[in-house]
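Hey, I was hoping to borrow your eyes for a little while. I've been puzzling over a protein and I'd love to understand its fold better. The fold is given in discrete form, as structure tokens running alongside the sequence. I'd be grateful if you could look everything over and explain what you see. No rush at all, and the record is pasted right below.
>
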Amino acid sequence: MDELKKYLEDFTKEISQAKSLDELNRVKGKYVGRKGLLNRLFQQLAQLSPEERKNTGRKLNQLKQTMESMVKERMQQMQSSRTKIENAVDITLPGKKQWLGSYHPLLIMLDQIIAIFKSLGFRVETGPEIETEHYNFEALNMPEDHPARDEQDSFYLDSGYLLRTHTSPGQIRALQRLTPPFKVIIPGKCYRRDAFDASHSPVFHQVEGLVVADSISMGDLKGTIEVFVRRLFGPERKVRFRPSYFPFTEPSAEVDISCGICGGKGCQSCGYSGWLEIMGSGLVHPNVFRNAGCDPDKLRGFAFGMGVERIALLVFGIPDIRWFFENDIQFLDQFRIFR
């Protein structure tokens, strides 16, 4: 009996100190749970004489009922107290400012790119996301046996249509619709059968640029790109052009900028080369002019294309392209300052 009295005293002390429903349930389980102290005492009744078993069993049942009643009462007190706190309103406190969301980093980057080129006299054009094979490949000087036309790389639809793999078809449509001289950029979504990993996505964004006049040179291309790079990345960044190959430009060049992390000295981010690739460019191929119904002997032009995700990764210092598509509020909230 003294032991039962001690259990009740300890139980009363512990439930009075419980500050949450979880703590209260732990105390309840310790004493009256399936593996609690009282249950072990019930199991020991078989060792007593019939008379002792009867009296002790009655005391144990009374103690169990008392403890369960105390738990129930304490739980009601906690719930009542929590309800009062939740319902209490301090009208003197300032109201909570509602989070209105923020611009997506890709939209921020796209707006900045467009603003820079608009300041250089470019106009914004658009093109369809569902393209014909003619506009997406053939008109851009890609024959039927070109590897870029493999079904494993493109999302083909019925009747010679596909989801465009780049924004370059906009070059042909601009040449057919506009009267030279003109300067246009063509932003939009593109689609390729790429694995979704840290540097690739089956859906991505590009900005295509096209300048056409009767006299255009690589010097015009170089000057335009250098102005764009230094306005977007900063005046200290260096620019270089590497010879490359694209079927719709000749000559062609890849555009690199000096690494902003190591200052061009070489680090892990730039593969210890000191340079980061940002876009492809070149003078418009004569066959592209011909395919658009233009005379390559009378017109010259340069074109360039960049991935918006690629540029955003470099500008914002983001290591994984998948972050742009995961809708993580904590990640997106960091760009609220651009609203």
Q: What stands out?
A: The chain is about 40% helix and 20% strand. The chain has a mean pLDDT of 88. The CA atoms of residues 208 and 305 lie 4 Å apart.
